[in-house]
């Protein structure tokens, strides 16, 4: 609602359509035509966006989507927070996922990471998703106006001009080689043209395709195209790791004996719990993770290597975030315990304090939470 009010003031357009399938498809079509576009929904509404999301991945059309998690399945508890759409957002659509997912921990991070999502989406021609939950969406927070005083993000990334298209590779038929899989291109990004540009004609299809966009089931082409698309995530991770600032946040002493890991809206609550625990004489440090895909593996490795044990705090019943970390960094499984809450209310700092004490002292956690010990315990 707020965006529909403010977009016209900056030359933008907001359109309400009949359902979430149409909303995501409209955003993808707008992006294909040459503008910055975004859409979003929550829960079942985002599920309807799964098919257009797969289309954006296959056609390499940049778009930014927003997903507001709430307690599910289905409509579940639509006014209550949860984080259990994590796996849904990471893997929904068809085939092997090829997208960027950020989970900001507060409204300031939401702004920062949405800017980053647009830059990455249009630079790498890939969908980017901002994952948050009802807790952040329902909060009122003050952010200093100067925080937003910065230059606009770059426009359309790797889009070519007509002069550049004339010098680019074309098929003998005259079609532009939109989906080039050049082995020397380690970023995996094939520059794109926009509809109407002279010399930029190609086919855009949801089927696997060759360089000009013609449908192809050739095995060698399939491997080359899929590996190129998936390879973008490695380049994006390198870019994120090479920046001066990180999307991950930390609290507590660098040489702490124990760690607490969380993501999204529980970040501030965990930080308050860490302050309490250190005041009580414990040695604890927290890490709030925002980079879900590609996962912040380097920072997580450094953090988990530095502590004896870690408690993963999340609002899911199945430990989805801990599962994501173990999927990518399985060697740390024996170090990670879970503290889960899924009754429709966010964590309280005291619940995290009690959960931590259940790790080091074997105490019972708060009755509103569930403790799951590390693998092998």
Tell me about this structure.
By secondary structure, this protein is an alpha/beta fold. Helices cover 37% and strands 14% of the residues. The chain contains 13 helices and eleven strands. The chain has helices spanning 2-6, 20-33, 43-48, 50-59, 86-91, 107-124, 134-138, 162-167, 219-242, 267-279, 297-306, 320-328, 349-360, and strands spanning 38-42, 63-69, 100-102, 127-133, 249-251, 258-263, 284-289, 291-293, 309-314, 336-340, 370-372. A six-stranded mixed sheet has the order 5-7-6-9-10-11, sandwiched between helices. Strands 1-2-4-3-8 form a five-stranded mixed sheet, sandwiched between helices. Helix 2 runs parallel beside helix 4 (50-59). It is globular and about 70 Å long.
Brief descriptors of the model:
alpha/beta, six-stranded mixed sheet, five-stranded mixed sheet, 11 strands
Summarize the structure in short.
With 377 residues, this protein is α/β, with parallel strands linked by helices.
Number of strands: 11
**How far do the termini sit from each other?**
48 Å
Total helix count?
13
Low-confidence stretches: none
| Main sheet: strand order | 5-7-6-9-10-11
The averaged pLDDT comes out at 93
Determine the fraction of residues in helical runs and give it as a percent range: 25-40%
Radius of gyration: 22 Å
* Major β-sheet annotation: 6 strands, mixed
Secondary-structure class: alpha/beta
Give, in order, the helices and strands.
Answer: HHEHHEHEHEHHHEEHEEHEHEHE
Quaternary state reads single chain
Instruction: Estimate what percentage of residues fall within beta strands.
Output: 5-15%
Shape: globular
């Amino acid at each position: 609602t707020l965006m529909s009010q403010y977009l016209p003031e900056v030359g933008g357009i907001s359109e309400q359509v009949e359902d979430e399938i149409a909303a995501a498809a409209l955003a993808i079509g707008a992006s294909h035509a040459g503008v910055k576009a975004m859409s979003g929904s929550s829960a079942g509404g985002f599920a309807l966006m799964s098919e257009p999301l797969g289309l954006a991945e296959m056609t390499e059309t940049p778009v930014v989507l927003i997903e507001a998690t709430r307690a599910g399945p289905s409509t579940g508890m639509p006014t209550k927070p949860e984080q259990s759409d994590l796996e849904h957002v990471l893997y929904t659509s068809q085939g092997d996922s090829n997208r960027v997912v950020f989970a900001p921990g507060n409204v300031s991070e939401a702004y920062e990471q949405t800017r980053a999502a647009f830059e990455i989406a249009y630079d790498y021609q890939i969908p980017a998703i901002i994952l948050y939950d009802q807790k952040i969406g329902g909060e009122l927070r003050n952010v200093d106006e100067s925080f937003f005083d910065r230059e606009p993000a770059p426009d359309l990334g790797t889009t070519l001009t007509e002069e550049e298209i004339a010098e680019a590779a074309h098929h003998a038929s005259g079609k532009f080689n939109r989906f080039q899989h050049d082995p020397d291109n380690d970023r995996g990004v094939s520059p794109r043209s926009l509809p109407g540009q002279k010399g930029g004609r190609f086919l855009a299809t949801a089927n696997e395709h060759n360089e000009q966009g013609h449908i192809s089931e050739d095995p060698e082409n399939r491997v080359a195209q899929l590996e190129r698309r998936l390879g973008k995530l490695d380049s994006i991770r390198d870019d994120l790791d090479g920046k001066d600032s990180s999307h991950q946040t930390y609290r507590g002493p660098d040489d702490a004996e124990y760690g607490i890991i969380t993501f999204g809206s529980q970040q501030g609550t965990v930080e308050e719990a860490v302050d309490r625990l250190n005041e009580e004489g414990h040695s604890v440090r927290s890490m709030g993770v925002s980079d879900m895909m590609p996962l912040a593996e380097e920072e997580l490795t450094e953090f988990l290597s530095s502590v004896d044990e870690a408690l993963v705090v999340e609002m899911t019943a199945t430990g989805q975030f801990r599962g994501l970390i173990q999927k990518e960094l399985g060697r740390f499984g024996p170090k990670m315990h879970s503290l889960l809450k899924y009754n429709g209310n966010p964590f309280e700092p005291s619940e995290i304090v009690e959960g931590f004490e259940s790790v080091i002292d074997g105490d019972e956690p708060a009755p509103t939470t569930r403790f799951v010990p590390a693998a092998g315990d």
